[in-house]
Specification:
With 248 residues, the protein is of the alpha/beta class. The chain is built from 9 helices and 10 strands. It is globular, with a radius of gyration of 18 Å.
């Protein structure tokens, strides 16, 4: 039982594109409730790693387990989303013409097929959840606003809120604070710290001050494998890490 006590477990995963090894024997362990930051230079394989976890890309070799029993390589991309792995891409994708509230409501429907477009038809539990998420993403006073009128940061939070409506166990976030103001970045740090524990998070980021604010363990990817892992201070002091960041 290799994956015991882990929410996500990758072992020696490899994938090649036209003979080029984008991911090269990558092993990774994420504990339940952990907030893991992933950094690494461009082309390190960060996006490809996320694609593998979510079933968008199939590895050529290795193992990917969710919890101790679920072999993700046996599941489709849609099934993996349904298992409780949510992914947020860098650009916000909210429904601009719909209100904040409607966006969250809509998020309830898939992939679990909870059919209800109307507030009064939401169950008490769903209503509570929606209110909770609105508070978490700090948009309670904006619930009737069309999403298109929100700031960039608010749209990012709304999309995170849409993922939270599905009560994911694991959230994958790609550069969540890119383009945010300092104040929005700080609020995002608070949001992530409040999600930690209840959810596991994997955050790919370049913003080192944001990482310093939220991180426990930082994993440095390079050439498709783990180059270093530890606290931010530890990896930043690592000669190999300094080399890949400065030596290019
Ligand atoms: P990162 O997100 O860390 O910048 P990527 O995962 O996007 O890195 O890319 C890793 C390497 O794999 C890069 O060299 C990239 O060009 C290559 N790559 C990624 N996806 C594909 C693909 N679909 N076809 C060919 N090469 C790819």
């Amino acid at each position: 039982d290799l994956a015991h006590g882990r929410i996500l477990y990758l072992e020696e995963v490899s994938v090649s594109f036209d003979g080029f090894r984008a991911i090269n024997k990558l092993s990774l362990d994420i504990a339940p409730g952990e907030l893991r930051c992933i950094i690494g230079p461009n082309g390190a394989g960060k996006t490809t790693m996320m694609d593998i976890i979510t079933g968008k890309t199939r590895p050529d070799a290795g193992q990917v387990f969710f919890g101790s029993t679920i072999d993700l390589l046996r599941h489709s991309e849609a099934e993996i989303a349904g298992l409780g792995i949510g992914r947020k891409f860098q650009k916000p994708t909210v429904f601009e013409a719909l209100t904040v509230f409607e966006n969250l409501e809509l998020a309830l429907k898939s992939p679990r097929g909870v059919a209800s477009a109307l507030w009064h038809r939401l169950s008490g539990v769903q209503r509570d959840r929606l209110g909770e998420v609105l508070t978490l993403i700090q948009l309670s006073d904006q619930w009737q606003r069309p999403a298109g009128l929100l700031s960039h940061g608010q749209k990012q939070w709304l999309e995170i809120g849409m993922l939270l409506m599905q009560e994911p166990k694991l959230l994958l976030l790609d550069e969540p604070v890119a383009g945010m103001t300092d104040q929005e970045t700080e609020r995002t740090a608070e949001l992530f710290l409040s999600l930690k524990g209840k959810h596991s998070l994997i955050v790919v980021e370049h913003d080192m001050s944001f990482i310093a604010r939220i991180s426990e363990i930082v994993t440095v990817l390079c050439e498709g494998a783990v180059l270093a892992q530890g606290t931010l201070a530890q990896v930043q002091a690592d000669e190999r890490v300094i080399e890949v960041y400065l030596g290019r």
